[in-house]
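Methods, example record. To illustrate the input and output format used throughout this study, we show the complete record for Aminoacyl-tRNA hydrolase. The sequence lines were provided to the predictor; the line carrying structure tokens was produced by it.
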Amino acid sequence: MKTEIILTELQFKAVRSSGAGGQNVNKVASKVMLSFDVKNSQGLTEDEKTLLITKLATKLTSEQILILNCDEDRSQLKNKTIVTKRFLTLIESSLIVPKKRKATKIPRAVIEKRIKAKRNLSEIKQNRRKPNF
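The corresponding predicted structure is encoded as:
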């Protein structure tokens, strides 16, 4: 992953925030929408693209474009930095390949311990019965 190239491929769009806020919300476009085209990115290898597409499938559009929004702050510049940081952490966490699980055999001592415990419980229950004369 080449972060410098990816940061140049980001497209930002400023829109008006939704919700309550009075006259300022109606005038100022402080909400920032970040869009990133995963399929046509030059900063990612083909393997990284397929990994991102599979891991971020719920967040991508049908054209494989990732869209993130931020309207946490009243400043457009702060929202832009917040959404950029959020994007980078999302990409980095999605590119981590989990280790494959190795199947392990149950140790013989564990099996013997379980069988011994079953046998012990069986003897306890047999000792509870009435004696047979």
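Annotations derived from this record:
The first helix runs from residue 3 to 9.
Residues 3-94 form a domain with the Double Stranded RNA Binding Domain fold (CATH 3.30.160.20).
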